[in-house]
Amino acid sequence: MELLIMVLAFLLNIPIGLVSMRKKSLSFPGGVLGAAIVGVITFLAHPYIWMTLLTFFITSTAIGKYKGSEKAVAMEYAEKGGERDFFQVMANGGVATAASVIILINFGIYNVGVTEIWVVIAVTSIAASAADTWATEVGTTTTNDPIWIFPPWNNVPKGTSGGVTFKGFMGTAMGAAVIGALYFFLTFSTLALYIVLGGILGSLIDTLLGASIQSVYYCETCKKQTEKKYHKCGTESKHIRGWRIMDNDVVNLLSGIIASSIIYWIIG
Length: 268
Prior knowledge:
The protein is built from 9 helices and 5 strands. By secondary structure, it is mostly helical. It has one domain (2-267).
């Protein structure tokens, strides 16, 4: 039985990776490899984790196509956009993968009767990633410039980490709600509410970290701030604030860890 499940884990995840690569939502080989690792491990641990993770990738890819031309300017600032590479995949799925490894070690392969809290932790991290992704994808389509999350709440360019908009918050809520609703549909458990809460918290934490310690650079050629070490013009950008190690991937991973830990503390 376990051998059959392991075979299914590979057979179901391979076409997902190939389709994602063809749709240019995953880079090759890094993004595809990262998705394969996360997909196989979560599938072996618990079907609900894998299903919510799959829903995250599908909905994030779909929302990423929403008004794509209007987000082009914002993506000039953002460190990454479009195809997800290995590190971006692991940043979004790292907590769920770690929780899945814990499940596998303690409860074995595909144990649907596993203690629910570890499944909730994994799904909460996915909800946080979904909320943050939806916040960016929806928020950058607003006609107004975002407001800096800290006083004096000045306007900042679209795509700036730490900038908030009403549409962006609505995107946050919708992204978390999609994952929470799926979990409720699968389990009929009221813990789905904590997953939605954790997703929203994760996105908020991501914004706070982005505004405070995430690394920001400045392109002397284009006279613009950016999260990219090398700007689109090819110029090596100058580091102006934040911690160099705190790039977008680290911020995403850290926000997922913090949000999941908070939910673990609440329900544990």
